[in-house]
Design a protein that fits this description.
The protein contains 19 helices and 34 strands. It has 667 residues and is α+β, with helices and mostly antiparallel strands.
């Protein structure tokens, strides 16, 4: 759960000015009259709080409320002394972490129900350092965290996300400096937090320092190509705690577990200054046995942190043949170990006995290789691309041994564009439109494109023409539309006057390929990204309506958090787009309410779909004075193009004062 920026922060000194008192809380409901709880909160935070619940009516609970910070105690005090809100739910978490490091001190979270007239019934999650249960206060948690992290008591510290894992473990993601520090301006402060969010290991959705895992011990990540299945696993593992293998049609038990193989070894004899070697047959362990041994060795050392066996493309091999008797080990008990042991063959038994000969802290039957059981720290995670035509379907008995994690198609954290000649197309817009067409003709999710299907070369954000044709269009032609070439719903069409006509994949090569791609895009309703001339046209139109003389018009460019050079209209759309990405759990209505409440001076700055439709239903204006912006939840908002010299500064002032982690400056 991302919390309100600056609501949990200490020692923020910007240009000699100490930041005001944080709010120590974040609303957990949508900003609507019915105050419905945000789904991601219900799925994680609230479930954990219910599991770790303490009596919120008890006099043991106290916390500060209101502008004066008056400390209220217990249910009676809240109700009789005019508290602005009352406790709704309280929880005390004993397992606590900051950026994956155990703090070892409890933390108390409280959900408060507002009584203010303007926010009547709204629920807020409170996390003030002054919240206490009996003699214990949250300040002790922060004192210990600063000590463990090696932070000076006056150093800047900002929390930007709170998560609950496994219902009983509370995790804070934070940015901090080890010494006291004065930021020269807001831009430097925002950059400090943004860098932590972008680069810090703690931003990843898994914690790898301890046994806090978001996904079950045996999980198959499945979904359409390009949805980030392998990347999801990569985020929580590293080369020190995993072994990776890939299944294919020729994979079998010996290539997965191990077998005797010819190897070269020295004879101990030196002839003419050269050491002689010979061929010898030795038992050579493969991915499974290596992971098995490494996991048990960690347990022997008293380290129960996870060790991962990662299987890529699990459905491309014959799982029954590859796992063999290991299938029995996949039944895990409540303690994470295999419920049932197997007796390995003599080759494996001798190998295991040799590997564990110095072990002192594992069961004798395991140490001697007499039986095999998966230890509780051995996680087996696999990926499955649902678009592949698997040679070996996975049987239901095997499937039941796994948890399944669907990877949805979501916009990534990089703004990819397709570059065809002089035109650019938004990649997310392209796959959104094409995926709808795939669904229409196939009725299947499996063949759709994920955001990471095409990764630009050299870590850029531009998908070049060759890559677009050879990878994207080839996949769509060969794997999706090959059997639908005569169907009028096929995307392989180009414009032909007021109509369209079929085009074969091979026609996208040779002379005139760019024009054909332009025509292909147009026939499928995919428009290029607006050019600077279009942005200037919007700005000039707004200035014309405002009666601003040409000589007084401002054509400045602006940066966001120190980056970019945007024109006025482009700036407004980009800022709102970035805000939407920060507020990925917010609805179109929530976003509209927030922006319209800033009083930016821009007419219909943000509209929902229904508002846009109502305003434009009888409009003859082809541009509708707004441009669509797609949200990650599939909803659309419409951002006004009525931006000009007369209102841009009001917008900039509103954004810079809104405390939303976005700062605008003139370039």
């Amino acid at each position: 759960m991302k919390i309100d920026f600056g609501s949990l922060a200490f020692n923020i000194n910007v240009n000699g000015k100490i930041g005001g008192t944080p709010s120590w809380g974040t609303a957990i409901v949508y900003q609507t009259t019915d105050n419905k709880i945000k789904e991601d909160i219900a799925n994680d935070i609230l479930i954990g709080m219910i599991y770790k619940k303490i009596d919120c009516t008890s006099n043991e609970l106290s916390l500060p409320l209101g502008k004066g910070g008056h400390i209220y105690h217990g249910d009676e005090d809240f109700n009789t002394n005019g508290a602005p809100s009352i406790p709704y739910l309280a929880a005390k978490f004993e397992k606590t972490y900051v950026n994956g490091i155990s703090i070892g001190k409890p933390f108390i979270l409280v959900v408060m129900k507002d009584g203010y007239e303007a926010h009547d019934g709204r629920l807020q999650l409170k996390y003030s350092p002054k919240i206490s249960w009996g003699s214990y206060t949250n300040q002790e948690f922060f004192d210990e965290a600063f000590k463990i992290l090696g932070i000076n008591s006056g150093s800047p510290f900002v929390c930007y996300e709170i998560e609950v894992y496994d219902q009983d473990t509370l995790h804070f993601r934070c940015a901090y400096k080890e010494e006291e520090y004065q930021f020269k301006d807001k831009n430097e402060y925002y950059e400090f937090v943004n860098n932590a969010i972008s680069n810090d290991q703690s931003i990843k959705p898994f914690v790898i320092h301890d046994s806090i895992i978001k996904f079950p011990i045996q999980t198959i990540f499945y979904g359409a190509p390009g949805t980030g299945k392998s990347n999801k696993i990569e985020e929580c593992t590293n080369n020190d705690n995993r072994i990776r293998t890939t299944f294919h049609p020729d994979s079998d038990y010996s290539t997965f577990v191990g077998a005797y193989k010819p190897t070269m070894e020295e004879t101990g004899v030196t002839v003419a200054g050269r050491k002689e070697t010979r061929i010898a047959y030795k038992y050579v362990p493969q991915a499974f046995l290596k992971a098995y041994v490494n996991a048990w060795e960690k347990m022997n050392e008293g380290n129960d942190s996870p060790y991962y066996l990662v299987i890529e493309e699990i459905n491309r091999g014959n799982c029954a043949q590859i796992f063999g008797d290991l299938f029995q080990l996949l039944d895990r008990g409540d303690d994470g170990q295999s419920k049932y042991a197997i007796c390995p063959d003599d080759d494996i038994r001798r190998h295991l006995a040799e590997q564990f000969k110095n072990a002192t802290n594992i069961p004798d039957a395991i140490k001697n290789g007499e039986e095999m059981r998966l230890p509780s720290n051995l996680y087996i995670w696999a990926t499955m691309n649902t678009s592949d035509q698997s040679l070996f379907p996975i049987d239901s008995a095997f499937k039941r041994r796994w948890d399944w994690e669907y990877m949805p198609i979501e916009k990534g954290d990089k703004d990819f564009v397709i570059e065809i000649g002089s035109k650019q197309y938004d990649w997310w817009n392209f796959i959104s439109i094409i995926n709808n067409k795939i669904d229409d003709i196939t009725g299947s999710e499996d063949k759709k494109l994920g955001y990471w299907f095409a990764k630009p070369a050299d870590n850029s954000t531009t998908i070049k023409c060759n890559q677009f044709v050879s990878k994207v269009l080839f996949y769509l032609w060969n794997d999706v539309y090959k059997d639908y070439s005569d169907d009028n719903r096929s995307i392989f069409r180009i414009t032909d006057g007021n109509n369209s006509k079929k085009i074969a994949f091979t026609e996208f090569f040779g002379t005139g390929r760019e024009e054909k791609i332009y025509s292909f895009m147009q026939a499928n309703g995919i428009n290029p990204i607006s050019s600077n001339s279009e942005n200037n046209q919007d700005e000039n139109f707004a200035d014309d309506e405002a009666g601003i003389p040409t000589s007084q018009r401002d054509y400045s460019k602006y940066s966001i958090n120190g980056y970019g050079a945007y024109g006025k209209g482009e700036l407004v759309r980009r800022v709102i787009d970035l805000y939407c990405k920060q507020s990925a759990n917010s609805s179109a209505s929530d976003i509209r309410t927030f922006w319209m409440g800033l009083n930016t001076g821009i007419v219909h700055l943000v509209e929902t779909q229904s508002e846009f439709d109502s305003r434009t239903i009888n409009s003859t204006d082809a541009n509708k004075r707004a441009k669509e912006l797609k949200l990650s939840n599939g909803e659309s908002i419409y951002v006004s193009t009525q931006v000009g010299s007369g209102n841009i500064q009001t917008f900039i002032n509103a954004v810079n004062s809104a405390n939303i982690n976005l700062s605008i400056a003139k370039v």
